[in-house]
Amino acid sequence: MFLPVLMVRDFGLLGWIVFAVPNIVGAAAMGWVLSKPGTAQRLAKDHALACQCFSAVTVAFHCFFVGWIVRAMLGWIGPALALAAAVATYLLTSRGRRELICAVAILTASLIAFIIFIADQGLPLHTFDVLSRGGFRLAWLSPAIIFGFALCPYLDLTFLRARALTAPKAGVAAFTLGFGFFFLLMIAFTLWYSRWLVPERLDRLPHFLAWIIGIHMVLQIGFTTALHARPLLASDTQQDFRYAAPLIWILCFCLPLTWSGPSAGPIAATHGETVYRLFMGFYGLVFPAYVWLCMTPSPASATKPTRQQWMVYGATVVAVAPLFYLGFIADRMIWLLPGIGLVLAARFAIARKSAGPMQNFV
Fold it and tell me: DSSP state, 130?
C-alpha cells in the first residue's frame, strides 16, 4: 500500500511497474509451485520458525506504519480504527470461520474507496512521467525487488494456509485470479494516490482524500495483521513468540511517536522512511535468502533445513547486510547487485556438500 508511492516518487511510472509485475507474478506462482496436496502444510511445519518470524515482522511492520503514516493522515483516530479492525477481524475469523466473508467485505470497501477517489480526482495517468529520474538506480534495485517478491510468499503463513485449503487446480485458479486481478486492482489504487501520499508532503493531503485512503489502509491493515497474529498467539506456538511478539509490535508502533516536536513533519518523513527501508531489508534479503538457501532444491520439495544450511544462511546474511544497507539506506543502489550475487552464489556452498537432488538442481 505504500512502497509503490516511493517507487513512483523516485522513478516514475516505470517504478510502479517494477514493483507490480514481480509482486503479482511471484505471489500467483505460489499457487502453481505448491499444487501437490499436502505440500503447503508440510512447508509450514518444516519451516515453522522462519514462517513465524515472517509473520512477527510483518505485524511489526504494519504497527510501525500505523504509527507513522496512518496517524499522520487521520490523527489518533487512525490507529484506534486500525486496532479495532484488527481485533474485530481476529474475533470474527477465530477457528478459521468467516474469513472469506471478511475478505470480500474489505475488498468491497477498498474498491468503493478507489471508485470515490477516481470520481474526485479523475484518471491522472498523464501526470506521471514514464521514468522521472534515476534509470540506472532502478536497474540496480530491480534484481532485489524480483528476488524478494519471488521468494517471500513461501514464508507467508496466510498464503500457505490459503493454498492448503484449496484443491490443486482450484488453488492454481484462485492464486492466479486473486493476484492477477483483485490484487492488481488494489495496487492500481496505490498508483492513483501516490502523488498525494509522499511522506514529505503529507501535510498537503486534502482532508477528504486522507479519509478515503485512510479507511482503505485501516481495513487492509486490520485484516492482514489479524491473520498473521493469529498463529503467533495460538496456544501451541512457542512461548518466545507468544510473549515477545506483542511487545515488539507495541514498540514498533511507538517508535514514530519519538519524532514529535516543532519540526515533526520533516523529521517524521526522514526518519520514517529510513525505518521503512530497514523493514524492506527483511523482505529483500533476510526472508528470501532463507527460502533460497534453506528450501532446497525448491519450496515444493524442501525438507527441514540442515545445520549446514543454517550456517551458510547466517553467514551470508551477515556478509551481505552491509551491502543492502548501502543500497536501501544510503541510497547507493549499485551495491545491491553484488549483494544479490553473493546470496545467489552461496547456494553453491550448500550444493557442493549435499546429496544428489540438490546438486542436480544447481
Answer: S
Contact 231, 94 (CB under 8 A): no
Nearest 5°: the CA angle 314, 316, 320 is: 125
For the chain, state the CA radius of gyration. Answer: 20
Question: pLDDT per residue over 38-51, tens digit each?
Answer: 999 999 999 999 99
Write down the pLDDT at residue 235. Answer: 63
Please give the grid coordinates belonging to residue 58. Answer: 510483518
Q: How far apart are CA 274 and CA 271, in angstroms?
A: 5
Mean pLDDT of the chain: 88
Q: Which residues of 74-89 are buried (b: 16+ CB within 10 A; e: fewer)?
A: beeebbebbbebbeeb
In single-letter form, the type of residue at position 29 comes to A
Grid cell listed for 318? 551477515
Amino acid 351 reads A
| pLDDT tens digits for range 84-143 | 999 999 999 887 788 889 999 999 999 999 999 989 887 665 566 666 666 788 999 999
Q: Return d(Cα 133, Cα 284) in angstroms, integer.
A: 22
Give the helix/strand (H/E) hosting 255. Answer: none
Q: Rounded to the nearest 5 degrees, what angle is found at the Cα of 288, between the Cα atoms of 287 and 294?
A: 85
Name the residue type at position 88.
A
Among 246, 218, 237, 186, CA closest to 86: 218
Cell numbers describing residue 139:
536497474
Q: What pTM does this model have?
A: 0.90
Task: Say what the alpha-carbon torsion angle 28, 32, 38, 44 is, to the nearest 10 degrees.
Answer: -40
Query: What is the C-alpha separation between 310 and 290, in angstroms, rounded?
Result: 9
User: 63: buried, middle or exposed (CB in 10 Å: 19+, 13-18, 0-12)?
Assistant: buried
Q: DSSP letter at 77? A: H
Look at the block and give the residue holding cell 495496487. 187
